[in-house]
What does this fold into?
Amino acid sequence: MNFESVEKIAAAILYEGYILYPYRPTAIKNRQRWNFGTLYPRAYAEAQRPPEPFSFVSECLLQAGADAKLDLRIRFLQLLREPSVRSSAGAPSQVLTDPSLEWDEGIERTATQSDLRISNLIMQPISMHLRFDSAQPTTEDAPAASPNNLRAHLTLSVEALENEACKLRVELQNLTPFAKDGAATRDEALAESFVSAHMLLVLNGGEFISLLDPPAQYAATAATCHNIGVFPVLAGEDGTRTTMLCSPIILYDYPKIAPESPGDFFDGTEMDEMLALRVLTLTEQEKQEMRNGDARARLILERTESLSEEHLMKVHGAIRGLRQLQEDGP
It folds into this structure.
C-alpha cells in the first residue's frame, strides 16, 4: 500500500478547524468544536432531533484487472479532555472549576485494511468490526495514546457494471458503546465520536474513474453514485488514477497543499499571510497561553516567530486556475 502521496492533504483535512486563530484554547471560537465530518456514537446520534450522523457512505467507480486489490485507510480525531492551562513543563498548572476552559485535544486514530481482492468483493461483500490504533507517537508535547473503546463497523461491496466498470460501495458506522441516554450533552458524545473522519483508497492493478469529470461513457453511471457524509475525489500526482480521497469537505480532483505555506495553520482558505501577521501581533500574555495550551498551537507560534522577512513575502495571496478566454468570449 502507498498512502504517502496523499498524506499531506489528508492531514490538512484531519486538522481543518482543529484550533483557530487566536489559537488559544480559552478563545470563545475554540471552546465549541465544529469540525467537519463528525460521526457520533449511533445510540446518541439516533436520539437527537433531528438525528445526527453516525455513519458515512462512499460510492465510486473503478476499472479493475483480474488481480486488482484494494487498500483502505480510515482516519479521524478522537477528542480527549485536557486542562487548557499548563505549566512550562506541560503539566496542568491548576484545577479548573470552569469546564469551558478545558481543551479537547485531538488524538489521531487509524484503521487499515490491505489486499482486498476486487473479484472477491464482487462475489461476496464483506463486513467487519474495526478497532482503532493511535496514528501518532507519544512525545513530551503530545498526550499519550490512551486506551479507547471506539468501535466501528465497515461494509464493502463491489458491483460489476455493463460498461466494463465496477461500483465500489463502502459504509462506515460508529458503533461505539455509549452508556448515556438521549439527554447526554454533545460534549459527552464527542469523546466517543469520529471527528474529521475520512478515508483513503488505493487500487493496485486498476484505476478509479473521476466522479467530477468522468469520461463520456461513464457519465450516466457516475451520476448514480450515492455519497453521504464524504465525497471521493482523485488524489496524488496529477493524471494518476490509483488513489481516491473520500473527504468530508467538498474538494476538486487532485487537491494540493499551497506550496507557499510554511506549515499548518488549521485553516484551508490560504490566508497564511494574514494569519502569520495576526500571530505576530498577539500580546505576550496571549502568546504564553498559546504556548501552554496545545502542542500544535505552540509549534505555529514558534514557526511564525522564526519566519524571515523573505519568507513572509512569499506567503502573499496567489491566483490559481487561470485559463485563456476565446477572443470572441464575454
